[in-house]
Amino acid sequence: MNEIATENLSPDTEATLLLCGRFGSERGEHHAPLTQKEYESLTRWLMERKLRPSDLLRCGSSGLLSDIVHAKLEPARVESLLARGTAMALTLEKWQRSGLWVLSRSDAAYPVRLKKKLGQSAPPLLYGAGDTSLLDAGGLAIVGSRDVSEQALEFTRNVACACARDKLGVISGGAKGVDSAAMQGAGEAGGIVIGVLAADLLRASVNRHNRTGIQSGQLVLVSPYNPEAGFNAGNAMARNRFIYALADYALVVDSAQGEGGTWAGAIENLRHNWVPLYVRTPGEKAGNAALIAKGARGFAYAPHERTSILEYLVYQQDTHNLYMQGVLCGASVATGQSGATPAAVDVASNIEPEKIAETEVCYEDAHSTNKASHEKLSVELDPFQDFLDKLTSLLREDVKNEEGIRLALGLEKRQAKAWLTKAVELEFLEKRKRPVCYAIPRQMKL
After folding, report:
1. What class has domain 383-439?
2. CA 419 → CA 244, 391, 406, distances in Å?
């Protein structure tokens, strides 16, 4: 039974699922599965010893487990979790009958976007249904409040349809309101849809409408939570970051101000700068104008326009970056300043759509389009990317401290510190201690 049900799992994923997964009734479990923070502590402990999660499963690992107290975990608890093979096998068999799969961070199919943008905050496990290759398709995250007007829902469906027309994926959360309208609009127009669910993945995966999208290769459903978990407000709030991290751009259709999951997710994205954030302009809720004031870009695209929605997004981002570098209107921006000002948003939002063609970006399909757009922006407009390129060459032979890097690349202290911090967060760089220095990462995080 155990061999049959786990044959599609990698050894690392099997170990991670035993440690972090839930099987059956949560109340009946003697030891609680590891939390995200506990698993992060465990992976650091393993990496220090050049071990992998699967090493905990091998025969004779009792000595290894006795040393696990250094990861602030009880050996008896970890040993008990690893011994749940039968319960895991029975649960996996049920999930697999419904077409569900399980990925861990060590699997090649695990979305690179989550690792790059979230680092240690990327979930240890992902459960899902559908083609896993769609997880890194990227596209536009479309989010918004559950309680919105019919006009907002119609706008959402039209934008999602435009994404499908222009071969741009749509990422959303599957909740009532804007999320459902976005996924439905893109799906019915033949587009690629990524649904990031906070609850009831197992039930959603067998829904007749969803099965049609999954079987056609258009829809993939994914969740960092147990496939049988019911609704939980905390999970619903926490999964917003995964919606943003899987996307290339994000659009808020309507948001309340200062409260609710849509507002919290948008603010978190602005703080971490995972993807450029756009907000429907004008919106019907107070949160729309408030988000623009905090640095989001206005979104006034009309889906029926001749210009593709991706061209519009790229041009708006291009314009915003130029403004921030003081190219537009003779403006000047202080070194090290980040985020958009309301004035910058106004400039970027009022460009005539007909002029978007001036970006001279060529498109062939969704993947080449995204890649070409980002490469163009990186080469022409992104000094951080230039910093990363030079840093890679600088650290290829030896590690350096912050001051050494700053002097070698001719940076100001403030700018060097900000970019080094960002590079570490994106896992392009490894910060070592005793002494404090920076190096190219020795390996990807487990």
Report:
1. mainly alpha
2. 21, 11, 10
Please indicate whether residue 363 or residue 326 has the higher confidence score (pLDDT).
326
Q: In this structure, is the dihedral angle defined by the CA atoms of residues 139, 144, 148 and 152, taken in order, positive or negative?
A: negative
- Residues contacting 412, CB < 8 A, separation 6+: 335, 336, 406
Burial tier of 336 (Cβ tally within 10 Å: 0-12, 13-18, 19+): middle
Q: What is the mean pLDDT of the chain?
A: 82
Furthest-apart CA pair in the chain: how many Å? 70
Over the chain, what HEC string results?
CHHHHCCCCCHHHHHHHHHHCCCCCCCCCCCCCCCHHHHHHHHHHHHHCCCCHHHHHCCCCHHHHHHHHHHCCCHHHHHHHHCCHHHHHHHHHHHHHCCEEEEECCCCCCCHHHHHHHHHHCCCEEEEECCHHHHHCCCEEEECCCCCCHHHHHHHHHHHHHHHHCCCCEEECCCCCHHHHHHHHHHHCCCCEEEECCCCHHHHHCCHHHHHHHHCCCEEEEECCCCCCCCCHHHHHHCHHHHHHCCCEEEECCCCCCCHHHHHHHHHHHHHCCCCEEEECCCCCHHHHHHHHCCCEEECCCCCCCCCHHHHHHHHHHHHHHHHCCCHHHCCCCCCCCCCCHHHHHHHHCCCHHHHHHHCCCCCCHHHHHHHHHHHHHHHHCHHHHHHHHHHHHCCCCCECHHHHHHHHCCCHHHHHHHHHHHHHCCCCEEECCCCEEECCCCCCC
Tokens representing 124 are 């240890």
CA–centroid distance for 286 within its chain: 26
CATH of 100-367, one of 1.10.472.10, 3.40.640.10, 3.40.50.450, 3.40.190.170: 3.40.50.450
In Å, what is the CA distance from 94 to each residue of 26, 186, 226, 242, 410?
A: 17, 30, 13, 26, 59
Q: What is the token pair recorded at 357?
A: 């063609």
Domain boundaries, the chain: 2-97, 100-367, 383-439
Distance CA 247, CA 256 (A): 22
Token digits of residue 201: 């993945």
**Single-letter code of the amino acid located at 98:** S
Overall pTM > 0.85: no
Are 326 and 332 within 8 A, CB to CB? yes
Kindly state the tokens that stand for 298.
């206005």
What pLDDT digit, counting tens, does each position of 205-240 carry?
999 999 999 999 999 999 999 999 998 888 999 999
